[in-house]
Every structure is written in C-alpha cells, then in structure tokens.
C-alpha cells in the first residue's frame, strides 16, 4: 500500500493549482509548471488540499499512486520555493566561470568546456570551484547537474573532478599502497 500517495498535499499561500483534462497546472511566485498525469489515478482538489486516489490495489496502480502524489508535491514546492543543486570542482587548475548565460569549465582538458543551460534552469558560480544549478522543475535541475557532472566525474584515486556537494567519493589505494607489493 502506497503510504506516500495517501498523504494529503496542502497548497501553500500564493500557489494556484488547476486540474483539468488529465493535466495539472501549477502557478506560484517563482514560475509556472504543467504536467500530464496518469489517467488511471484520480486527483481532486478540495479546500486547498490535493487528494490522490487509485482505482485498485494492483501493483501498477500502487506505483502510480505514490508517483503522482510525489510529482504534484515537487511541482508545488518548485513554484513556491524552487530547487537547487550545488556542484564542487576539485583538482589543480579546475575552475568554473560564467560567460554571459553559459558556464565555462576548465577541468583538465586542452580546451575550455562551454555548457549552455537547459530552458528553465539558472546556472551560477559561487567562487571558482562551486557551481549552483537552480530552477523550479526538479527534473530539469537534476538533469542539468548530472550533465555538468558527466563532463568530468570525480575519479576514485585522487578525487579530482566534478562532484555533488556532500557526495562521498569512495577512494581507492593506488599501486604503491597495495599490501605485499614487490620491491
């Protein structure tokens, strides 16, 4: 039984939600989002609270039940507060800068890497080694952060590369650190 789907979703002040024709339209102080909802799941709006229900207890309906409620909750939170992910660069000479609306990365290649933001996503640089990806759509913020990280993921031997702030990089011991190595 989906416990996530059963929780009612309160709508904060300043957020407008419209449910019509299998689509959800959410508007708030930070922007506007629209999404198609699964037709099997029924969504109702009563007294500023969204209720999500499913037609049966089949595994497919249980999965869609929690998913639909989570998607709606992310939309409401995105237009009211927004989402942000922070990336950290580590390595000698690794740095980030903004050039207009594009992000310019120096991450150990012979050339700078230019990254254009996705629509609805804002990139900013806090210091030469911190990148902040922010926006109202949680999926787009995560996708943009993953694309930036994919350019040079942190490697396990020295930890050089791009990683999420708070991410633990599992470090490996190099050849010299092996036990019982020949001399």
Radius of gyration: 22 Å
Give the total of beta strands. Answer: 13
The N- and C-terminal alpha carbons lie at a distance of: 61 Å
Sheet with most strands: strand arrangement: 11-12-7-13
Q: Spans of 5+ residues with little confidence (pLDDT < 50)?
A: none
Major sheet: 4 strands, antiparallel
Return the domain count: 2
- Average of per-residue pLDDT values: 92
Number of helices: 3
Q: Which of globular, elongated, flat, extended, rod-shaped describes the shape?
A: elongated
Q: The CATH topology of the largest domain, please? A: Outer Surface Protein A, domain 3
Task: List the main descriptive attributes of the protein structure presented here.
183 residues; alpha+beta; Outer Surface Protein A, domain 3; four-stranded antiparallel sheet; three-stranded antiparallel sheet; 3 helices; 13 strands
Short description:
The chain is an alpha+beta fold and 183 residues long.
Describe this entry's structure for a reader.
With 183 residues, the protein is an alpha+beta fold. 22% of the residues lie in helices and 36% in strands. It has helices at residues 3-6, 59-80, 138-151; strands at 9-10, 16-20, 23-28, 31-36, 42-46, 49-53, 83-90, 95-99, 102-106, 113-115, 121-125, 130-135, 161-164. A 4-stranded antiparallel beta sheet has the order 11-12-7-13, covered by helices on one side. The model has no long low-confidence stretch (mean pLDDT 92). It has 2 domains: 3-80, Ribosomal protein L6 (Outer Surface Protein A, domain 3, Alpha-Beta Complex); 83-164, Outer Surface Protein A, domain 3, CATH 3.90.930.
């Amino acid at each position: 039984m989906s416990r996530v789907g059963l929780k009612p979703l309160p709508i904060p002040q300043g957020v407008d939600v419209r449910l019509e024709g299998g689509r959800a339209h959410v508007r708030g102080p930070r922007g506007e989002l629209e999404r198609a909802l699964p037709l099997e799941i029924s969504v109702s709006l009563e007294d500023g609270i969204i209720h999500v229900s499913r037609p049966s207890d089949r595994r497919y309906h249980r999965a869609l039940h929690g998913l639909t409620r989570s998607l709606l909750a992310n939309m409401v939170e995105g237009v009211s507060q927004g989402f942000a992910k922070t990336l950290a660069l580590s390595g000698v000479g690794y740095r980030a800068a903004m050039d207009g609306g594009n992000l310019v990365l120096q991450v150990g290649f012979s050339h700078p890497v230019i990254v254009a933001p996705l629509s609805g996503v804002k990139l900013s640089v806090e210091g030469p080694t911190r990148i902040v990806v922010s926006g109202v759509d949680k999926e787009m913020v995560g996708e943009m952060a993953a694309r930036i990280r994919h350019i040079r993921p942190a490697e396990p031997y020295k930890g050089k590369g791009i990683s999420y702030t708070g991410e633990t990089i599992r470090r490996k011991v190099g050849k010299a650190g092996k036990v019982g190595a020949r001399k």
